[in-house]
Amino acid sequence: MSLDEYELEKRKQISVRGIAEVENVANLKTAFNRHLHFDLVKDRNVATPRDFYLALAKTVWDHLCSRWIRTQQAYFRDDPKRVYYLSLEFYMGRTLTNTMMNVDITAAIDEALYQMGLDIEELEEIETDAGLGNGGLGRLAACFLDSMATLGLAAYGYGIRYDYGIFEQTIQNGWQVEEPDEWLRYGNPWEKGRPEYCYPVNFYGQVEDAGNGKRKWVNSEAVFAMPYDTPIPGYRNNTCNTLRLWSAKAPSGFDLKIFNTGAYIDAVFGRNTAENISRVLYPNDNFFEGKELRLKQEYFLVAATLQDIIRRYRVADHGQRSLDNFPNKVAIQLNDTHPSLAIPELMRILVDVEGMEWEKAWNISCATFAYTNHTVLPEALERWPCSMLENILPRHLEIIYRINQEFLDLMLTKWPGDMDRLRRMSMIEEDGEKRVNMAYLCIVGSHAVNGVSEVHTEIIKNDVFHDFYEMWPEKFQNKTNGITPRRWLLLCNPSLSDAIMDALGDDKWITNFEKLKDLAALANNIQFLQNLMRIKRENKAKFASYMEQHYKIKIDPSTLFDFQVSCACFEVAG
């Protein structure tokens, strides 16, 4: 099928993804035009394709708002135990198509746009991918959010709203060229700023003796964390959870006195320094300033998040002033070691701010945190120089030292005199520059540790963290990584999804992927296999047309395409 033939066939199709109700189509057209006229202040004569995309995004947003508000009202009223997923990466991908699918308005949107002479696929391509992740770790976080919303769990994601995400790739003369990923250049219609929930995050300073064995962090420098919320709708269940991303803001953005002296760069130096914290996903840490910025990012995330979690814990309909019940209402999952500073930060809050005794605070903290490990390479485990922690987070280093000392004392009660084991298990490494092993901190400070596949889990139990496994075998468990079948099958390959539904007789597999095992009975069914081959040919023809249209490369659709996909093997989450 040539490019022209493919485009002609596409134009002939009306609501190819389903039959829409007339009333829904009319309402959507009305909403679309209202947003185009009153939000974007455009009419069809001057509107650009991006204007049409934004009007469509706002129309879909209308269908999220009531679900979002009602979900949060239910959580406030019922006060369930909440899950908080902390990750430095959230590789969300495009939001428009996934949202239309989950709130079940895809067919109606298709029909409404067709009647207005607009192409849904062209508008979908305008959306900028929110590349706030680098690979499997970020995509796992995104899939977990989708899955938890679909399961109706009271869950929240917390991350950083980077100004620039993963680099934008172009190919020039056959070579990869990396450009800044300016995903916010045209704004983001899928987020809502919440300046009323800004929190101060402190760095530097000193620690003083506050009497009675208490310590006080003083003379610190503050940066503000402003949240931006993105709705996470479940699949056709009216649940809509929240991804909250923090953006760094300076306490004062502009020094007019300095500006009026002609020192224009110096006038905004403080603002730029503060806001650099959320500027870039994974700044280059091959030099000191880059390492320092990475450490600030990690603490910025956990400090703002814990303040927000505690605020929510206390203001729910059944909110409590005491934090004694904290682990019964709060579960915090650390996605790799990047959020590991949440452990000493919670201890600082409980001991220094709330005045809790150390042992009681430690029991609460351990019962709250769980840790997902992503690497089996010892040299790849995250480590921070003690000198850098002492400069940027002096109180937290003191807390880490005490956690480590009490852990080593406990370890020696089980293996008296085993100094070699003590050296191996200490989270303070003293070979060369003194450093903190953040993975060890996570294991000691969490009640559960999981690998991301059976093989991975066996490696961390028998090799990487074997000493810790011998001490706490009950902590270690496997949680095979999952991907959401909604995005990665139903959305990506609608023709194959239709064939599966026809073969199985229902769509239960969309929320229970185990149902696909029933397809094994059709392994020798000629009609079913021929249908699969037809779908494969059609998809290859679409890919060939895409390559010709975007890259001027002609490909024979009968070619065998061999793709290398990065990331470990995943099972599919419900």
From TrEMBL:
One example of a Gene Ontology biological process annotation: glycogen catabolic process
Family: Belongs to the glycogen phosphorylase family.
UniProt EC number: 2.4.1.1
Example of a GO cellular component annotation carried by this entry: cytoplasm
Matches recorded under Pfam families: Phosphorylase
UniProt source species: Taenia asiatica
Catalysis performed (reactions): [(1->4)-alpha-D-glucosyl](n) + phosphate = [(1->4)-alpha-D-glucosyl](n-1) + alpha-D-glucose 1-phosphate
Name listed for the protein in its UniProt record: Alpha-1,4 glucan phosphorylase
Listed GO MF terms: glycogen phosphorylase activity; pyridoxal phosphate binding
Function: Allosteric enzyme that catalyzes the rate-limiting step in glycogen catabolism, the phosphorolytic cleavage of glycogen to produce glucose-1-phosphate, and plays a central role in maintaining cellular and organismal glucose homeostasis.
Coiled coil: none
Keywords, alphabetical: Carbohydrate metabolism, Glycogen metabolism, Glycosyltransferase, Pyridoxal phosphate, Transferase
Highest classification ranks of the organism: Eukaryota, Metazoa, Spiralia, Lophotrochozoa, Platyhelminthes
Alphabetical list of PANTHER family matching this protein: GLYCOGEN PHOSPHORYLASE
Entry cofactors: pyridoxal 5'-phosphate
